[in-house]
Amino acid sequence: MRLATYRNGSPDGGLVIVSRDHARVLDASAIAPDLLTALGNWQLAAPALHRLAESLEDGSAADVTAFDPARCLAPLPRAPQWLDGSAFLNHGRLMDIAFNKPPIPDFDTVPVMYQGASDDFLGPQDDVPFVTEADGIDFEGEFGVIVDDVPMAASAEEAAQRIRLLVQINDWSLRAVGAREVRTGFGFLQAKPSTSFAPFAVTPDEVGDAWRDGRLDMALHVRRNGERIGAALGREMAFSFPQLIAHAARTRRLTAGTIIGSGTVSNADRAAGSSCLAEVRAIEMIEHGAARTSFLRFGEEVTMQACFADGRPGPFGRVAQRVVRAAGADRSD
Predict the structure, then answer these.
(1) Could you give the C-alpha distances from 29 to 19, 32, 39, 48, 147, in angstroms and in order?
(2) pLDDT averaged over 10-residue windows placed end to end, the chain, 333 residues
(3) How far is 178 from 181, CA to CA, in rounded Å?
(4) CB contact at 8 A, 296 and 139
(5) Which of 98-121 are b and which e, b meaning 16 or more Cβ less than 10 Å from the residue's Cβ?
(6) Which DSSP letter does residue 64 get?
(7) pTM of the model
(8) Which end of the chain is more exposed for a tag (fewer CB within 10 A), N or C?
(9) Using an 8 Å Cβ cutoff, are 121 and 79 in contact?
């Protein structure tokens, strides 16, 4: 099933179910007022939601309306935790070049992960506000999972059983700020503004055989102002999502609604392109001695959509967002 969250004036929005053709929508608030509540009571909520989704598909549901993507918040407008990995080693190695830093110890064997802000996620058509272009505005196309409660020290096998939903993510980054924060040794703060999500959180059965070995075998198509940036494949994760979850839960439990990100989707094959501008620039530095591609400027648009191997659009829906200057921001740039 495909779940979305409509704006209704509350911080967590209202839970709806969307048809597989993305044309129709059904209010699910009688089962759970919002997705976070449903995840907190998944054993009871999931069967009822599945029945509602089946009624939407077979035409027996009442009060069906046309789907309106402009009403969508992020599937989870806020979450207990947002933990983002760096499971694509090709991306990490290219970032070492971009930031002129030594390789991370044990990068090939121990997942890298940071904890981001989870209180203010952005929807798929929201304008994305930034203070200044000088901060190095960049997008990062990713895949992610939303989990049920995960006990501390869970194994990867146990973690795999706690995955409830799959999501598509744009983890916005400020590269100039990030370069400074990396050197502090305290991790990211200002460099990671609000993260964006595609409209639908989906159960793994919605992607069929594309969900294998705890990875999504789909291409994430990324465009800047309509120009192709890349269509990298999610199957090249060095660490699976169960492994990332187990890493996050090694010393603490994870509560229902925690989101785990893959990190920027990246492939060794240069023909696949990239899922962020920093990677594009790193490749240009390697091949030409200097970066040629600029970071984003106000007014530019970024679109993302995951597709199956045969080119069919995936179940997450499409993201189309415009970069804007934040209200009250410094205009000195």
Answers:
(1) 16, 5, 13, 11, 21
(2) 97 98 97 98 98 97 95 98 95 78 84 95 98 97 98 98 98 91 82 96 98 98 98 97 98 98 96 96 91 97 97 97 89 52
(3) 5
(4) yes
(5) beeeeeeeeeeeebbbbebebeeb
(6) -
(7) 0.95
(8) C
(9) yes
